Amino acid sequence: MKRKAEAEFKRQQERDSQIPPVPNVAASPDGALDDKSIAMSMLSQALRMQSEAEGMIKEAARMKKEAQRMYPGVIPAASKSETMAQPQPVKSTRGRPRKVVAENAVD
């Protein structure tokens, strides 16, 4: 069962790796990039990131199912925000304490 899931994951990774790479953005002869080339580059990067994220979500779901099959009573761990200690209150004064000046001091 595990080997079948791993083989399917590898096939999916190979399919995802066939996504065309982000093309190099070519500057015009005067050295400036135009809005169209920047927008095309951003769009292709966004599409690549989206497909990678979808693949990661699918892999996470597969791992959750496998964990449930491995040990049905397993529950997700508490979130980090619940397990972190509460911050200590901060003093109202900040910085270095004021210099003590004697009343009879000569300037």
What does this entry look like structurally?
With 107 residues, the chain is mostly helical. 51% of the residues lie in helices and 0% in strands. It contains three helices and no strands.
Question: Which characteristics define this entry?
Answer:
107 residues; 3 helices; 51% helix; mainly alpha; single chain
Strand content range: under 5%
Low-pLDDT segments: none
The coarse silhouette is flat
Roughly how much helix do the residues carry, as a percent range? 40-55%
- Rg, Cα atoms, Å: 29 Å
Distance between the termini: 86 Å
Tell me the layout of helices and strands.
Blueprint: H1 2-16, H2 35-70, H3 80-83
Helix pairs in contact: 1-2
Question: How is this structure best summarized?
Answer:
The chain is mainly α.
